[in-house]
Design brief:
The protein is of the alpha/beta class. It is built from 15 helices and eleven strands. α5 (156-163) runs parallel beside α6 and α9 (305-320) packs across α11. The chain starts with 7 loop residues before the first helix and ends in a 9-residue tail after the last helix. The structure holds glutamine (GLN). Glutamine binds at residues 128-131, 154, 174-178, 206, 313, 425.
Length: 484
C-alpha cells in the first residue's frame, strides 16, 4: 500500500487499528519526497531525522494504548515563514538566511501537542509577496500537474507538497489569497479562516491586518481536522479572538437543502477564463441539485479591491520589514564602510526585486503629503468592501465565486509584469480585506489543469463553508494527487 497517497483520516484509521505504524507512514512520505522533489522543488528544508524520532514516539504511545489526538502521527509540512525552534526559517529570503528561531510559533506548538509529524519547511514567494513562488530566493516550485507551470503562491510549496503527496497535510499563510490560489492551481483544498481565529504568534509578518495562517489538505474532512488543531485563542497574539470554538468535523454533513448561496455578479467579469467559468457554472448547478438555493447578489466595491489591497499591504509591509537592517538577524553586507552604508547595502542586496518594489510603494503611500490620499483613502474603501459583504450575507448564508480567474499559468509568464501578477488575486483579496473566511475546493479541470471553487462565509462562518464544501465534494468526483 502506498501510504503517502492516503488522506489523514485514512492514515488515522490504519494507525489506530495498528495495521501500519507511524514510522512506516513517515518513511513512505520521505521516500516519496526523495523521488519527487527533484522535479517539484517544493521544500526549502526537510526535517527527516526529527520526523522519524517523532514517529517512533507516536508509535510507542500507540503501543502503550495511550489516548491520542485525531491527527497524531500525520506528516505535515510548514510554510517557511512560520517559526520553528532551532530549524532555519527563511521566508524564502536571502535577508534572513541562517536565522534559527529561538521559539516555536503557536501553531507549531499546537501541531506538536497534537503529536503530528513535521516533515519540512515549504517554498514560497519571498516574505509571502507573490502569486507563483517565483519570488523565492531559492528558485521556483513547479506545479505537480505540469512542471512548466507555477503552483501559485505565495504558499505554492505547501500546495504542491499536498498535491504531489510529499506531505499528507500542510499549513500556509494567506494575506491576499496565498492559501486559496495555490490550492486552486494544484487541485487541493485550502482555507483562510476568519481573521483572529488562528494565532499568528511566530508567523513572520507581511501585512498584519490581513495575514492569517490556514490548512491545506487533500480533502475537506482533512481540512476540518487540521483547522481543529490550529484554531484557538492565544494571549500572545493581540488579534486572537477568545470565543468557544466548535469541533469543525461536526459540520461535515451533506444536508444543505435550503442553504442560500450568493453568486456575486462582479466575480463573473472580463478576464475570467471561459474554461474556469464553465466549471464554476457547473458547480452552481451541482449545489442547486443538492437542494441549495442560489441567489444573485452584488458586491459593488469589488473593483477597488486590488488597488486597496496593494496600498494597505505594501504600507504594512514597509513598516514590518523595517527591522531587517543587518543588525539583528541573518544577512549583513560585509563591504560597507559605515553604518548607513551597511543598512543600505544589506537591504539592497538582501531583499529581492518584488519585496523592494513593495517597500517603496508602501513607504510612498505612508509618506507625509500622500498619506491621506492613499493610505487613509484605502482604509475608507476597505470599510466599504467589508460593508458589501455584511449586506451580501443578509441575502445568503455563503458566497460562491471562482478562486482564481485562470488555471495555473506558465512559470515566467507573468513574472516581468507585476500588474498582471497582481490581477491574479482579484477574487481572493476581498476576503482578507473584510476579515471573513474562505475555502478553495477543486471543481474539475480545464485544459487538463485544476480549477478551484471559492466559498466565502461570514465572520466565524467556517462551519458553513466546510459544510457546503463537504456536500459538494461528496456529491462530485474530485481529482487529487495528480502524479501519485
Ligand atoms: N499574491 C498576493 C500578494 O502578492 C497575496 C499574497 C499572500 O496572500 N501572502 O500580495
Amino acid at each position: 500500500m502506498e501510504l503517502y497517497k492516503l488522506t489523514a483520516q485514512q492514515i488515522q484509521k490504519l494507525l489506530r487499528s495498528r495495521q501500519v505504524s507511524c514510522l512506516e507512514v513517515t518513511k513512505s512520505v520521505i521516500a516519496r519526497i526523495e523521488e519527487t522533489e527533484p522535479n517539484i522543488h517544493a521544500y526549502i528544508a526537510t526535517t527527516f531525522e526529527q520526523a522519524m524520532e517523532q514517529a517512533i514516539r507516536v508509535d510507542e504511545k500507540i503501543l502503550r494504548g495511550e489516548e491520542l489526538p485525531p491527527l497524531a502521527g500525520i506528516p505535515v509540512a510548514i510554510k517557511d515563514n512560520i517559526c520553528t525552534k532551532s530549524i532555519p526559517t527563511t521566508c524564502a529570503s536571502k535577508i534572513i538566511n541562517g536565522f534559527k528561531p529561538a521559539y516555536d510559533a503557536t501553531v507549531i506548538e499546537r501541531l506538536k501537542k497534537a503529536n503530528m509529524v513535521i516533515i519540512g519547511k515549504t517554498n514560497m514567494d519571498e516574505f509571502a509577496m507573490g502569486s507563483s513562488t517565483e519570488n523565492s530566493a531559492f528558485g521556483p516550485t513547479h506545479n505537480p500537474w505540469d512542471l512548466q507551470r507555477a503552483p501559485g503562491g505565495s504558499s505554492g510549496g505547501s500546495a504542491a507538497v499536498v498535491a504531489s503527496c510529499e506531505a499528507t497535510l500542510a499549513i500556509g499563510s494567506d494575506t491576499g489569497g496565498s492559501i486559496r490560489q495555490p490550492a486552486s492551481f494544484c487541485g487541493v483544498v485550502g482555507m483562510k479562516p476568519t481573521y483572529g481565529l488562528i494565532s499568528r504568534y511566530g508567523l513572520i509578518a507581511f501585512a498584519s491586518s490581513l495575514d492569517q495562517i490556514g490548512p491545506l489538505s487533500k480533502d475537506v474532512r482533512d481540512c476540518a481536522l487540521l483547522l481543529n488543531v490550529l484554531a484557538g485563542y492565544d494571549p500572545k497574539d493581540s488579534t486572537s479572538i477568545n470565543i468557544d470554538l466548535p469541533d469543525y468535523t461536526k459540520f461535515l454533513t451533506t444536508d444543505i437543502a435550503g442553504m442560500k448561496i450568493g453568486i456575486p455578479k462582479e466575480y463573473f467579469c472580463e478576464g475570467l477564463d471561459p474554461g474556469v467559468e464553465k466549471r464554476i457554472q457547473e458547480s452552481i448547478a451541482v449545489f442547486s441539485g443538492l437542494g441549495a438555493e442560489c441567489v444573485d447578489i452584488s458586491l459593488p466595491h469589488t473593483k477597488y479591491a486590488i488597488a486597496v489591497y496593494y496600498i494597505l499591504a505594501t504600507s504594512e509591509a514597509s513598516s514590518n520589514l523595517a527591522r531587517y537592517d543587518g543588525v539583528q538577524y541573518g544577512y549583513r553586507a560585509e563591504e560597507a564602510e559605515n553604518l548607513l552604508d551597511m543598512y543600505r547595502l544589506t537591504r539592497s542586496n538582501g531583499f529581492g526585486a518584488e519585496v523592494k518594489r513593495r517597500i517603496m510603494l508602501g513607504t510612498y503611500a505612508l509618506s507625509s503629503g500622500y498619506y491621506d490620499a492613499y493610505y487613509l483613502q484605502a482604509q475608507r474603501v476597505r470599510t466599504l468592501i467589508k460593508n458589501d459583504f455584511e449586506e451580501g450575507f443578509k441575502k445568503c448564508d455563503i458566497i460562491l465565486t471562482p478562486t482564481s480567474p485562470t488555471v495555473a499559468f506558465k512559470l515566467g509568464e507573468k513574472i516581468d509584469d507585476p500588474l498582471k501578477m497582481y490581477i491574479s488575486d482579484i477574487f481572493t483579496i476581498s476576503a482578507n480585506l473584510a476579515g471573513i473566511p474562505g475555502i478553495s475546493v477543486p471543481c474539475g479541470l480545464s485544459d487538463g489543469l485544476p480549477v478551484g471553487l471559492q466559498l466565502l462565509g461570514p465572520v466565524f462562518g467556517e462551519g458553513k463553508i466546510l459544510q457546503a464544501a463537504y456536500s459538494y465534494e461528496v456529491g462530485t468526483d474530485l481529482c487529487v494527487c495528480p502524479i501519485a
